[in-house]
Amino acid sequence: MPTILVTGGAGYIGSHTYIQMIEAGFTPIIFDNFCNSKLSVIERISAITSHPPLLYQGDIRNRAQLDEVFSQHHIDGVIHFAGLKAVGESVAKPIDYYQNNVAGTLTLIQAMQAAHVKKLIFSSSATVYGDPISVPIREDFPTLSATNPYGQSKLMIERMLQDLAHSDPEWSITLLRYFNPIGAHPSGTMGEDPQGIPNNLTPYITQVAVGRRDQVSIFGDDYPTPDGTGVRDYIHVMDLADGHVAALTHKLNEAGVHIYNLGTGQGYSVMQVIRAFEQACGHTIDYQMCARREGDIAQCWSDPKKAARELHWQASRDIKQMAIDGWRWQSNNPEGYPN
Ligand code: NAD
Ligand code: WQD
């Protein structure tokens, strides 16, 4: 089975994908600089898979570190998760985002070219659609309206990779546009562990539910949605992980550029998500209505039919399961991963 380099493999989505890749028989190698993850995730991975993962502690901007991995292993392809992802921080520190995400990807591509590895799966985001013209969002919708440096960095990388595939038809490039990943591994030993105040909704909810924070701030209740709060396409991180295995299985050996939405195709409002987590944890979760957050859109959900057709993949875990698994992780690990 193919050996796959997984940049950012210690992170939230990468670590869950690692587990599903092992299940499916692939040989993943983690490459991560741990700028947004903790070394203890490696022990959790080892406990689930019964083997310590192949691990390189390195930075995708460091060519020598990448060259070393490519020289030590016969690598068939790369899944590229490594990057910075906080939208607000990207507005405050745009150069860090372009440096890490865009320049880092360029260095990775150059190292791949030097090693004659021309198969790549890239973590893109629904953010590339900006404020969509309509919902559900198809892959052929325009991608010109990203409103923050994080989104711009994803768009730039998508464009660079498309130009690369155009210039050299040997490349196989799969762009996976994730919607809103939430939930955790069913073991309750792995999950999302944001550093500091969470930017995203569900870690905030679970931190309130477990007593780490007082109340959830709901950013706007005057959107043109059924209950006035923002609507998103939440997808279980295990379904997302399975989507990567499907992309590896069906697209890695097919040259060209392949683009897929990874979402459920169904939208839930902030209020509905809070209610789902209340059910999961068995008590009420305190919240307050606040002003809209700058840059937010009213609603966003995917049309996931292309992935179903071509990757033979579709999400199977519902919002109830996402809340149950997300809560199991948070309640077993109130402070996240140990250092
Ligand atoms: P994460 O921060 O948990 O994981 C990213 C990992 O990459 C971390 O372990 C971090 O230490 C590592 N990393 C960052 N910069 C690096 C560098 N220069 N060299 C080596 N390692 C580096 O984030 P995640 O939620 O798992 O997201 C993974 C990818 O998916 C990111 O590219 C993100 O932009 C994208 N994405 C995430 C979401 C989401 O909501 N979580 C949605 C759409 C797309
Ligand atoms: C979801 C909903 C908020 C926090 C972001 C990135 C996107 C992708 C996923 C990486 C919205 C509301 C949130 C809170 C709230 N990441 N909310 N109170 O903004 O859809 O997407 O993460 O690629 O690029 O933009 O996700 O979880 O921040 O917000 O009311 O404390 O919850 O307004 O309606 P978002 P989110």
Q: Can you offer a commentary on this structure?
A:
The protein has helices spanning 12-24, 40-49, 63-72, 87-92, 94-114, 149-167, 201-209, 237-251, 270-281, 305-310, 319-332; strands at 3-7, 27-32, 54-57, 77-80, 119-125, 172-178, 180-182, 216-219, 231-232, 234-236, 256-262, 268-269, 287-290. Strands 3-2-1-4-5-6-11 form a seven-stranded parallel beta sheet, with helices on both faces. A two-stranded parallel ribbon has the order 7-10. A two-stranded parallel sheet has the order 8-13. It has 339 residues and is an alpha/beta fold. The mean pLDDT is 97. It is globular, with a radius of gyration of 19 Å. Helices cover 40% and strands 17% of the residues. Strand 2, helix 2 and strand 3 (54-57) form a beta-alpha-beta unit. The structure holds nicotinamide-adenine-dinucleotide (NAD) and UDP-4-deoxy-4-formamido-beta-L-arabinopyranose (WQD).
